TrEMBL record:
Species lineage: Bacteria, Bacillati, Actinomycetota, Actinomycetes, Pseudonocardiales
GO biological process: lipopolysaccharide biosynthetic process
Protein name: Acyltransferase
Organism listed in the record: Pseudonocardia bannensis
InterPro entries the UniProt entry points to: Acyl_transf_3_dom (IPR002656), Acyltransferase_3 (IPR050879)
UniProt feature coiled coil, ranges: none
Domain Acyltransferase: from-to ranges: 21-363
Superkingdom of origin: Bacteria
Region described as Disordered: spans on this chain: 478-498
Keywords: Acyltransferase, Membrane, Transferase, Transmembrane, Transmembrane helix
Transmembrane stretches, start-end: 27-50, 56-80, 101-120, 175-191, 198-215, 221-244, 256-277, 283-300, 321-341, 353-373
GO cellular component terms given for this protein: membrane
A Pfam family the protein falls into: Acyl_transf_3
Amino acid sequence: MTTTAEPTAPGAPRAGGELRALTGLRIVAAVWVMLFHFHFTALPGVAGVVEVVGPLLTAGALGVDLFFVLSGFVIAYTYLEKMGPALRAGSATRFVWARACRMWPAYVVVFNLFGLWIGARLLFGSDDQIAFQGVQPVVSVGAWLEQLLMVHLWDHAFFDGASWVGSTWSISAEWLAYVLFPVAVVVFYRLRNMPPPLLALGALALMGPMAWAYLSEGSPYFPWSWMVRILCGFSAGVLTYLVVRRMTATVRIRRAASLIATITPFLIAAGLCLGELVGPGRGGAVIALFPVLVGSLALADRGVARALSTRWSVHGGRISYSLYLVHIPIFEVYWLAMAYFPALWQPTVTAHVIGGAVVLVTFPVAHGLHRWIEEPARLRMRGWFGARRPRPAAEVAADSDPVTRALRTIAVGAGAPAPRTAAAAAVRPHPVAAAQAWAAAQAVAATRAAAAARPGRPAVCAPAALFTPSHRRRAAAVTGEQEMLPPAPRRPRHATTRTTTPTFAAAIAAAAAIESRQRRPAHRTWAQAGS
């Protein structure tokens, strides 16, 4: 997708960059679902809130569909260009494994811990109810294995009772979408050049079956409705991305997208309330606006997009998956405690404070799960399959420096096998020269790190210091009056053959020339002298 020269605007889609507004939208969807589940709590205050806000709370199950559209958009944004041209076993395997690394670690911890809770209720409970679900889940080794592999919903026409943790039916549904994506992306890739209006109509049409179910029945609940929800919602998200990638993010486009992103939530809220006047659940037809909301937020840079791009919103979006996982187990424990301790559901201030604390405690628990389980386990699992782990910012910054990169390349080249021909020997760096190159790279990095702590001072290392022995090396700033000629490297005493280092000197000069253009004009003198 083409963008203007404003790549850092919040929410602006950038190749390889995070769509912060969409990340912030995830916490909105997760909280919406969580409050929907909490509204079943038998507290007088909760019933009073439901009477006031009505469908804004009771329609919170739509947050799951918003997640599906979001997932389709973000997955297409990340993988469409990489995987689209053709179906390849390697790329498909890496994609599925990457998604498993993202979903599985936190999920397997939560569902196994809650499985112990269900087992305890099964063994020591006074009735057959082991979970607060309309249909009780099956407790068996086979059910455990299906949930371990996240396929527990695939052979169920309805999601009731399919999961020990009630809300994790959608995890199994989304896992199905990820497994099918490597095949579907080949088709989506060939649609990328279609006219954007036609793609937009396709995205809206895909939301049509669920919107019609709400309009006609007031509920999206029919056999295999979960499959319609995930496949249509996910595909609508992919088509929404295909529309966005064809748009040039000019200032005018971003302003219009910001306006649409600000208006759409009010339209959704108004549609939910007006739909209740027609009939129970009819307002759920606003599900058709979810692709509009996601696509506009991807292009917007102000208004709601700016609010969703703040540090706290983005962090909330990053822990939203963990929040989605932990809130039902926490609520289940609380609801069972209410059955044994009547004081918890009495119309007292204490009971309502405890209820509010139960809702709030889900956030630090989700944060802990994300920080100590989800992210570390994801990185470790990615390493098992040979994927590269994210490098520290300091290493990335060091490698982006031209001098350091050139010197490190020379140092690494010194470890190559001994040359077999005279021509190869002429260009192979001398071992001592390679060692000096590595020391020089460290000197550059250390000098600039020290200079970064002194704003206003030149962050440049004196070239002469690069070849000074370590006990005499001293970082210094280069000025136009200083001598910039590096002394020639010494020949090692143990050398048995004559080895010249013209390539080494030329690389130093070239690297200095690059840096002189990027960093300080003062380096030109050194570059010209070294060449």
